[in-house]
Structures are given as structure tokens and as C-alpha cells.
Design brief:
Blueprint: E1 2-6, H1 7-12, H2 15-23, E2 27-31, H3 39-51, E3 54-56, H4 65-72, E4 76-77, E5 84-86, E6 89-90, H5 93-102
């Protein structure tokens, strides 16, 4: 089960509660109204990721995606579909760039 929670909720969650929920198989999907990640935000996310599985759903860019995954220990990322070029047609270039950055070469 995935539980979607705002970054402000994450700031208030007790580590023991996070561990218990993790043991129940719950994955935290962390979102925020603000698309920018501050150093404090990263610290909060990293701390939560120590106790449970976290999917990060904001603040992800081509420039920071690799370091976010490596440095925070998050379980995964959640990306939105990009800007609409016209009704029903999304620009997926940014998504493709982010996924390409994460691609592992064999």
C-alpha cells in the first residue's frame, strides 16, 4: 500500500510510527506544494528513508535526480507528465531526460 503524504506531515511523523507502518508494508509517497527542495527538506526525507520506503514526488530535476536517489536512500521517484503542449498532448521531454539520467549502462 502507498500512503501519499505532504512534506509538512512528514516533518511531524514519529520515527517509531514510520517503522511500524513500514513493517506493515506501507510505502510513503512524499509530495509538496513547493517544487523546490531545500537542504532541510532533504534532511527530513533522508531521515524518513532510514526508517521506511519513500517515493519522492517533488523537486526532481535532470540535474539532481541521480544525487537525490544516491544520497537520500529513497525507494523511488514519482514524476508528473510534464506541461501540456495543447489539450491532451503532454511534453514528455523532461521525463525522458530524467529517466535517461537514471539509466544503468551494462
Amino acid at each position: 500500500m502507498i500512503y501519499k503524504m505532504n512534506l509538512e506531515e512528514v516533518r511531524r511523523i514519529e520515527p517509531d510510527v514510520a517503522k511500524t507502518l513500514n513493517q506493515s508494508g506501507i510505502i510513503f509517497h512524499v509530495v509538496s506544494i513547493d517544487e523546490n527542495l531545500s537542504g532541510e527538506d532533504l534532511g527530513v526525507i533522508k531521515k524518513l528513508a532510514e526508517d521506511c520506503r519513500v517515493i519522492l514526488g517533488f523537486g526532481i530535476t535532470v540535474e539532481n535526480v541521480q544525487s537525490l536517489v544516491e544520497e537520500t536512500g529513497i525507494y523511488g521517484i514519482s514524476l508528473s507528465g510534464g506541461k501540456e503542449l495543447k489539450p491532451g498532448l503532454k511534453d514528455l521531454d523532461k521525463l525522458a531526460e530524467i529517466l535517461e539520467k537514471l539509466e544503468i549502462e551494462e
